[in-house]
Specification:
The chain has a domain at 2-21 and 97-259. It is 27% helix and 27% strand. It has helices at residues 5-21, 44-58, 65-73, 84-92, 132-137, 142-156; strands at 35-37, 94-110, 115-116, 123-126, 178-180, 185-204, 221-240, 257-259. 23% of the residues are buried. Bound molecules: 2-acetamido-2-deoxy-beta-D-glucopyranose (4 copies). Keywords: Signal. Residues 1-20 form the signal peptide.
Length: 262
């Protein structure tokens, strides 16, 4: 991960302005979460997964967990819930996300095979793997995906982000051609520009869940910190020479396309 100095300067300015707009600085007003998960917005399994994670973390004795585990796996639908307390536990608990930091940054991904040119008379040509950006940007976690959409919506309302285009991957330079000289190693790379969002996640657990039985000190709210990446745009570029993913022993030399040197 690289952060350019210029970008750092820009983002600190943006940060200061964005946070001036957040209500957190007003002690009289409760801060509004950017994203909230409850039994009204998500299925009970999602809620019980979060509760289970907290239970695992805070419990003093693993044997105390068994009751909660059995319950969360039987909670696929409301009907199988054991009693009103358990129903209330899932319905009155919530998970809330708050933005705590924003950083403009880049991430680099491999976008082709690693290739070596063993033909002394011609240069070989390497290009990005077909559709590779979809593989790179693919999301596999529903909550993370929803969070990303919520963040893009939010950022689109910030005056400070008005010149930023999110998810701008329509016109990628897939036509880039990396020319490889004799015995040279080459790999196409994808530089993704993104906003790295640091979030505080508060799991607020209703008293009816009786988590104080797992740990007397537990006050009802579990706080941790998570990161979300909101994509802006990307570019392919040619990387010459060896790297952690490209060396002579794994490099492909077969089926290369060739070009006579100019
Ligand atoms: C989801 O993707 C991340 C990396 O992006 C990976 O670490 C994780 O194992 C994946 N999870 C699933 C369920 O495929
Ligand atoms: C990507 O987005 C950033 C922030 O808006 C911008 O500064 C940069 O020029 C963009 N890069 C490309 C390749 O579009
Ligand atoms: C070449 O790269 C592969 C894959 O990253 C790695 O497992 C291997 O150890 C590397 N070999 C050398 C000689 O660096
Ligand atoms: C609710 C519950 O099962 N509490 C138990 C948790 O573990 C401690 C120590 O093993 C027991 O004393 C509690 O009764």
């Amino acid at each position: 991960m690289r952060v350019h100095l210029f970008r750092l300067v820009v983002i600190f300015r943006v940060l200061a302005l964005v946070f001036a707009n957040l209500p957190s600085h007003n002690p009289l007003k409760e801060e509004i979460p950017i994203f909230k998960i409850t039994a009204k917005t998500h299925d009970r399994n999602t809620i019980s997964d979060f509760l289970q994670q907290v239970a695992n973390k805070i419990t003093n004795s693993p044997t105390n967990l068994s009751k909660f585990k059995a319950w969360s796996t039987s909670s696929n639908n409301g009907a199988s819930l054991n009693n009103d307390a358990e129903k209330q536990c899932l319905e009155d608990s919530s998970i809330k996300y708050y933005i705590r930091s924003l950083t403009l940054t880049d991430q680099i991904y491999d976008a082709s095979e690693c290739r070596i040119n063993m033909n002394p008379r011609m240069q070989s040509i390497i290009q990005p793997t077909y559709n590779v950006h979809n593989l790179i940007l693919r999301e596999n976690d529903t909550i993370q995906t929803q969070l990303k959409y919520v963040l893009v919506d939010e950022f689109n309302r910030y005056e400070q982000f008005k010149d930023y285009k999110f998810n701008d991957f329509e016109n990628l330079n897939y036509d880039i051609t990396c020319l490889i000289d004799y015995q040279q190693l080459m790999q196409v790379e994808f530089r993704e520009t993104l906003i790295e969002v640091g979030l505080e996640r508060r799991v607020e657990i209703d008293n009816s869940c009786e988590f104080n039985k797992l740990n007397l000190q537990f006050t009802g709210t579990a706080i941790d910190y998570v990161t979300s990446h909101v994509p802006l745009n990307g570019t392919f570029f040619c990387r010459k020479g060896r790297s952690s993913t490209c060396n002579r022993s794994i490099a492909e030399s077969k089926n290369a396309r060739y070009k006579l040197p100019d």
